[in-house]
Fold this sequence. Notes:
The structure is a single chain. By secondary structure, the protein is of the alpha+beta class. The protein has one domain (8-64). It is 45% helix and 15% strand. The protein has three helices and three strands; from the N terminus they run αβββαα. A three-stranded antiparallel β-sheet has the order 1-2-3, covered by helices on one side. Strand 2 (35-38) and strand 3 (46-48) form a beta hairpin. Helix 1 packs parallel to helix 2 (51-65). It is globular, with a radius of gyration of 13 Å. The chain starts with 7 loop residues before the first helix and ends with a helix.
Amino acid sequence: xxxxxATHAEADAWITVLMNHGYLHRVxxxxxxxxxxxRASTSTPHTLHDPALAIDxxxxxxxxxRPHASEARR
Length: 74
């Protein structure tokens, strides 16, 4: 569990990493700590209005792409 709030810089860094590794198709940075992201060219865009929402979105993607620890041990 986090003990500090997510920052704009942290969220932006994670979104950039996912974009550079091909897990996001497109990212548009909006005003005042907002991002609009597309997982694929045909997917519905998600607008993330706060760094905390962006970190939650990144966490969901990471959970999808990383194997669960129990599955990796098998």
